[in-house]
Amino acid sequence: MVQEQTYTRVFTLEEAMHQASGHSTKCRFIAGGTDMMVNKFQGNDTTLHFIDITRIKELKGIYVENNYLRIGALSTLDELKHSEVIQKEFPLLLEAAHSVGSPLIRRTATLGGNILCENRCIYFNQSEWWREAVGYCLKCSGNVCIATGGKKACFSEFASDTAPALISMHAQVKLLSTEGERLIPLEDLYSGDGVKPKTIDNSTILAEIRLPLYQNFKYAFKKLRLRESLEFTSLTTAVCLNDHDRLRIVLGGIDPKPIVIDAKRDDDKEELIKTALKKGRAVENDMFSRSYRREMIRVFLTNCFKHIET
Prior knowledge:
four-stranded antiparallel β-sheet, 10 helices, 12 strands
């Protein structure tokens, strides 16, 4: 029996919350949809009720308040480059945003959507008939991880490029649900479970991203992918140093969640690289081999450390 699917456009947060409470299962908020709709067409997304939030004004805008830059989650990746504050204080975010997709995608894709981008795996991000032929994996209701042969854990890769950059700059996010609003560090949004990689449910809205101003960040950003445009990451590396000599390293694409390492400027860099290699749980589920991506962690971090010291 074919289940009914609905699409509802809302104009206020109150409407959005009402619709979400009415469809507490199988609902999802949608804005740019550049990633979500591909998954829907491939059968990887079984959402029955889409709630279009693109017209909600409270989720838009970029402005400064109380020593924080506040970015509405519906700001597109392309719009970020027009903000003078982001150009001056957070060029790392611009570089990360520019690494996403193509110019056409960046004009549609939102910052909030990229932060919430679904984890990826070459055994999952395929058509329905392909996944059925090879055998369903843990992420699509199967009983085994095809990449590892294990039955307990899914190692789909954390795929956002803007999130590692934001986390390296100590970003926070504001979340809205029927229970109210809360502010959490961005890294706490990710669970590390490849099947359910977010710590929030689909009826929660990511409303805003906040970044601390006047940190005088020095940064380096690297992304590994087969082609310069369109490709999702196989390894994203963001390294940030603030004016208090606090160093933060964030890696994406090699684990179901971002790898975060806090350190000091003078800490032994070789030990930091070893820590990154130990934390990352890369498996054979990418176009690049596990061994190659692990080697590139060392290469990227070595180059990043040199860059921020110049």
